[in-house]
């Protein structure tokens, strides 16, 4: 059986180009400034427990009373459940302190690194990556 080199080249190029979106999806270093960390206090407006990423929408009020709507990107539900979180951990109206890497674009978005609920429970840094970290009942632990 004789294989046409041009057909082979076109098929290989098609497979390679078809896989490019897979590499683009996890561009944390592209979207977020991983050299900076911001800490915000806010009120949860929505807790999104869904694939491929969970999220927290929250409002931050500045000293002048202006409200800014923020969003935080987390890991997937499975990784978060391994870190001790559940779909019932947050609800609208909950007060949180949240830290993470800000969006490079200046948009009010962060990649979550840690958050603390009003009752002192903290998701440790990088717990959203599924490394076995557990939600603690002691602030700063």
Largest sheet: 5 strands, mixed, barrel
What is the helix/strand order?
Answer: HHHEEEHEEE
What does the overall shape look like? elongated
Highest CATH level, the class:
Mainly Beta
The CATH architecture: Beta Barrel
Helix content: 10-25%
Into which percentage range does the β-strand content fall? Answer: 25-35%
Number of strands: 6
Radius of gyration: 20 Å
- Total count of helical runs of at least 4 residues: 4
Count of distinct structural domains: 1
Spell out the CATH superfamily. Nucleic acid-binding proteins
Q: Strand arrangement, largest sheet?
A: 1-2-3-5-4
Keywords for this structure?
disordered C terminus; single chain; five-stranded mixed β-barrel; alpha+beta; 141 residues; OB fold (Dihydrolipoamide Acetyltransferase, E2P); 4 helices
Précis, in short:
With 141 residues, this protein is α+β, with helices and mostly antiparallel strands. It is built from four helices and six strands.
Task: Describe, in plain words, how this protein is organized in 3D.
This protein is α+β, with helices and mostly antiparallel strands. The protein has a single domain (28-129), classed as Beta Barrel (OB fold (Dihydrolipoamide Acetyltransferase, E2P)), CATH 2.40.50.140. It has helices spanning 5-18, 20-25, 28-31, 77-82, and strands spanning 38-48, 55-61, 67-73, 95-102, 109-117, 122-123. A 5-stranded mixed β-barrel has the order 1-2-3-5-4. A hairpin with a 6-residue loop joins strand 4 (95-102) and strand 5 (109-117). The longest helix is centred in the first third of the chain and has 14 residues, at 5-18. It is elongated, with a radius of gyration of 20 Å.
């Amino acid at each position: 059986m004789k294989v046409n080199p041009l057909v082979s080249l076109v098929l290989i190029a098609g497979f390679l180009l078809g896989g490019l979106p897979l590499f683009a999806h996890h561009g944390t270093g592209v979207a977020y400034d991983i050299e900076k960390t911001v800490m915000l206090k806010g009120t949860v407006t929505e807790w999104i427990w869904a694939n491929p990423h969970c999220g927290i929408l929250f409002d931050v009020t500045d000293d002048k009373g202006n409200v800014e709507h923020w969003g935080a990107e987390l890991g997937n539900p499975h990784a978060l459940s391994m870190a001790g979180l559940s779909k019932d951990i947050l609800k609208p109206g909950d007060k949180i302190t949240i830290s993470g890497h800000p969006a490079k674009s200046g948009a009010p978005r962060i990649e979550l690194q840690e958050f603390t609920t009003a009752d002192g429970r903290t998701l440790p840094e990088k717990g959203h990556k599924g490394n076995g970290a557990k939600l603690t009942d002691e602030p700063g632990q």
